[in-house]
TrEMBL record:
<dbReference type="InterPro" id="IPR051312">
    <property type="entry name" value="Diverse_Substr_Oxidored"/>
</dbReference>
<feature type="domain" description="FAD-binding PCMH-type">
    <location>
        <begin position="1"/>
        <end position="177"/>
    </location>
</feature>
<dbReference type="InterPro" id="IPR005107">
    <property type="entry name" value="CO_DH_flav_C"/>
</dbReference>
<protein>
    <submittedName>
        <fullName>Carbon-monoxide dehydrogenase medium subunit</fullName>
    </submittedName>
</protein>
<dbReference type="GO" id="GO:0071949">
    <property type="term" value="F:FAD binding"/>
</dbReference>
<dbReference type="GO" id="GO:0016491">
    <property type="term" value="F:oxidoreductase activity"/>
</dbReference>
<dbReference type="InterPro" id="IPR002346">
    <property type="entry name" value="Mopterin_DH_FAD-bd"/>
</dbReference>
<dbReference type="InterPro" id="IPR016169">
    <property type="entry name" value="FAD-bd_PCMH_sub2"/>
</dbReference>
<dbReference type="InterPro" id="IPR036683">
    <property type="entry name" value="CO_DH_flav_C_dom_sf"/>
</dbReference>
<dbReference type="InterPro" id="IPR036318">
    <property type="entry name" value="FAD-bd_PCMH-like_sf"/>
</dbReference>
<dbReference type="InterPro" id="IPR016167">
    <property type="entry name" value="FAD-bd_PCMH_sub1"/>
</dbReference>
<keyword id="KW-0560">Oxidoreductase</keyword>
<keyword id="KW-0274">FAD</keyword>
<dbReference type="InterPro" id="IPR016166">
    <property type="entry name" value="FAD-bd_PCMH"/>
</dbReference>
<dbReference type="Pfam" id="PF03450">
    <property type="entry name" value="CO_deh_flav_C"/>
</dbReference>
<keyword id="KW-0285">Flavoprotein</keyword>
<dbReference type="Pfam" id="PF00941">
    <property type="entry name" value="FAD_binding_5"/>
</dbReference>
Length: 278
């Protein structure tokens, strides 16, 4: 049961959605509803002081759908569902870490309804796509009161979705030879206890971790310690031991030491999957 009272509107275009978001206190974007609606049911306080007064349902906005290949890489519309992302041939070929992160997300119902924009923007707890987007060096495209803008997936994960903005697309560059994603899921919810994503580039692997850390983070210290190789599981675990313990946030029944080790194990598995560890 949802105890909050709110209004609901289905705009016919992005401009109308932006006008509603700009002009109404407590207006929130509604996409697949797979984070927002459970949050409203539990009274989760992740929606700020204004709470939720108006749901702006963007699911009818065709301009936010579709996956296309452009000159520099992939453009993934924010309304792409997680199920579509997991199965799309362009994504499987050009951004396998994103496809794997989508496949690992929740259950079939969540993947059929949940969207790329929603999984990137969901506040409050670690989700799967941001870490894969950071490893892939992706950019989040936004539309807001000030017009169109773009921020790196890393900046977006640090700052969250800007108020009154709509994520319109995720842009994934072609750079890199291979990518992979590995996760240890919470058994009840499937959310990540820890997840690691890697993208192999000419400069070495780009490595990002979430769940074990306060938010999805690129681990440049680990990348630097591994630079030049040889890439082995032991070298990866040693590189993670070089990170400050405070980086890893103990959770329910998990210590910082455990999470730091788990992040190393998952990263080594992802590197093996991407072909960097024999
Ligand atoms: C049973 C269950 C299991 C789950 N397991 C996992 C899991 O294993 N891993 C995981 O990562 N997640 C998991 N989730 C969460 C879920 O996958 C995603 O967070 C969800 O799909 C978000 O997408 P959505 O379209 O449903 O967003 P919504 O719920 O509609 O919105 C989520 C948030 O993002 C904002 N938002 C949505 N779209 C946009 C946009 N285009 N622009 C700006 N803001 C936007 C909304 O205002 C809201 O704050 C699970 C959820 C459930 C119910």
């Amino acid at each position: 049961m949802i105890l909050t009272e709110f209004d609901y509107v289905r705009p016919v275009g992005l401009d109308e959605a932006l006008t509603l978001l700009a002009g109404t206190r407590g207006a929130r974007v509604l996409a697949g509803g797979q984070s927002l609606l459970p949050g409203l049911r539990t009274g989760e306080n992740a929606f700020g002081a204004d709470g939720v007064r108006l749901l702006v349902d963007i699911r009818g906005l065709d301009e936010l759908g579709g996956i296309a290949r452009g000159p520099g890489g992939l453009r993934i519309g924010s309304l792409t569902t997680l199920a579509e992302l997991a199965a799309d041939p362009l994504v499987l070929a050009g951004a396998p870490e994103l496809a794997a992160a989508a496949r690992a997300n929740g259950d079939p119902q969540v993947r059929n309804l949940g969207t790329v924009g929603g999984n990137l923007a969901a506040p409050g707890r670690a989700t799967d796509l941001p870490v894969a987007a950071i490893a892939a060096d992706a950019t989040v495209e936004l539309a807001g009161p000030g017009g169109r803008s773009a921020v790196s997936a890393e900046e977006f994960a640090a700052g969250g979705a800007p108020a009154r903005s709509v994520v319109t697309a995720l842009l994934v560059p072609d750079a890199g030879r291979a990518g992979a994603f590995e996760k240890t899921a919470d058994r009840a919810t499937r959310y990540p206890v820890c997840a690691a994503a890697v993208r192999i580039t000419a400069d070495g692997p780009r490595i990002a971790v979430t769940g074990a850390t306060p938010r999805a983070l690129r681990l440049r210290g680990v990348e630097d310690r591994l630079r030049g190789g040889p890439y082995t599981t032991e070298a990866v675990l040693a590189a993670f031991r070089g990170e400050p313990r405070e980086l890893f946030v103990p959770g329910r029944g998990t210590s910082a030491e455990y999470l730091g080790h788990l992040a190393g194990v998952l990263t080594a598995r992802a590197l093996a999957k991407a072909g960097a560890i024999a």
